[in-house]
Design goal:
The protein is an alpha+beta fold. It contains 13 helices and eight strands. Among the domains are: 164 residues, P-loop containing nucleotide triphosphate hydrolases (Rossmann fold); 41 residues, no CATH class.
Length: 345
């Protein structure tokens, strides 16, 4: 299998229709893409990853995962891929297509396969993917799903880790140090070295042995087996639902992280508008208000001692009696108890 042609339409810096012909002649099958910084080399590489894997492109390289997270989710990230000049001209569609030749699919003999992924930045609708086999829509791709077809019959995403990368990725591969990274790298090695084929053969043999055992099982054992199969199907559906929820939650996390980042930047900008003098003045006002609050609270506490007498005074007033009120006053720095006569009549 090899790539024969790549087409980019309004994708980032590639305005309009851009076709890159990779047809080889005289067995010259090595192509070198060169250019200065900012001339689209990385974008060209990224376009192929997006065309093949869409929102799963973050599984190919952590770089895409970080960029998607920084933009607040995949939809916001990919919507920015529309060429700016095309947007000014109100052409909101962009797409990337890749033509493969010499693809070996035992179930589907063919000469060429075209994978095309499109997006409309105006409506932000779900991206569309189309797979053509010898110029016709693939029924097999529709049956199993376009994404699964690409990963199963054209290029597994594990192999893509070794297929779509630049020189910087070599350093990242050498710095693998977590168990998750090692696991992913091991799967990629299995794909590249062909070990997965042997694992599939082993799995087929195990399934054949299981089938022979099923045929020789008793009625009770078969009934139990059918029950277990039904449970497995139920769990598989549950796993599928949970995986979809995980993807949705991941998008929400990216969106909230982006919102949080924007708010933090806004706070920093707002904070930078206040001078040191204004900040000190605000702090002084805060101190004055805190002292005033403390004074009012103390006065409120002193009034608590008078509240019972005021209630009693009201009741006595209603009966028309003369009462004595003892007050604790401070006179000439000496505590004096004064007796006051009040005629309630």
């Amino acid at each position: 299998m090899r790539i024969d042609e790549i087409e980019l339409y309004n994708f980032r810096i590639y305005k309009g229709e851009n076709k890159i012909n990779l047809t080889s002649e005289n067995h010259n099958n090595i192509f070198i893409v060169s250019g200065n910084n900012g001339f689209g080399k990385t974008t060209f590489l990224m376009s192929m990853v997006w065309c093949m894997y869409g929102k799963n492109m973050q599984e190919v390289d952590d770089l895409y995962k970080k960029e998607i997270g920084d933009q607040g989710g995949y939809n916001k990230y990919i919507a920015t891929s529309l060429n700016r000049m095309a947007k000014i001209e109100e052409d909101y569609n962009f797409h990337v297509s890749i033509k493969f030749v010499n693809v070996n699919i035992p179930e589907v003999p063919c000469k060429e396969i075209i994978v095309k992924r499109s997006y409309n930045a105006l409506t932000s609708t779900n991206e569309e993917i189309e797979i053509l086999i010898d110029g016709y829509p693939s029924e097999l791709a529709k049956e199993v799903g376009h994404e699964i077809f690409i990963r199963e019959f054209i290029m597994p995403i594990e192999i893509a880790k070794f297929f779509f990368f630049d020189a910087e990725k070599i350093v990242n591969l050498a710095e693998v140090n977590t168990n998750e990274q090692r696991k992913k790298l091991s799967l990629a090695y299995s794909e590249v070295l062909g070990i997965k084929k042997y694992e599939e053969i082993k799995g087929n043999l195990e399934n054949l042995q299981l089938k022979l055992r099923q045929e020789s099982a008793s009625a009770a054992e078969r009934a139990l087996l059918e029950k277990l199969k039904a449970e497995v199907i139920g769990f598989e559906e549950l796993i599928k639902e949970n995986n979809e929820k995980i993807i949705a939650f991941r998008e929400q996390i990216n969106e909230k992280s982006k919102e949080s980042k924007d708010i933090q930047e806004k706070l920093i900008k707002e904070g930078s508008l206040i001078t040191a003098e204004e900040l000190n003045k605000i702090r002084e006002q805060e101190d004055v208000l805190m002292k005033k609050i403390s004074t009012l609270q103390n006065e409120l506490k002193e009034s608590y001692d008078i509240i019972p007498f005021t209630r009693m005074f009201k009741k006595v007033c209603q009966k028309g009696k003369t009462i004595l009120i003892l007050t604790h006053e401070k006179r000439k720095k000496k505590n004096v108890t004064a007796i006051r006569r009040t005629n309630t009549g």
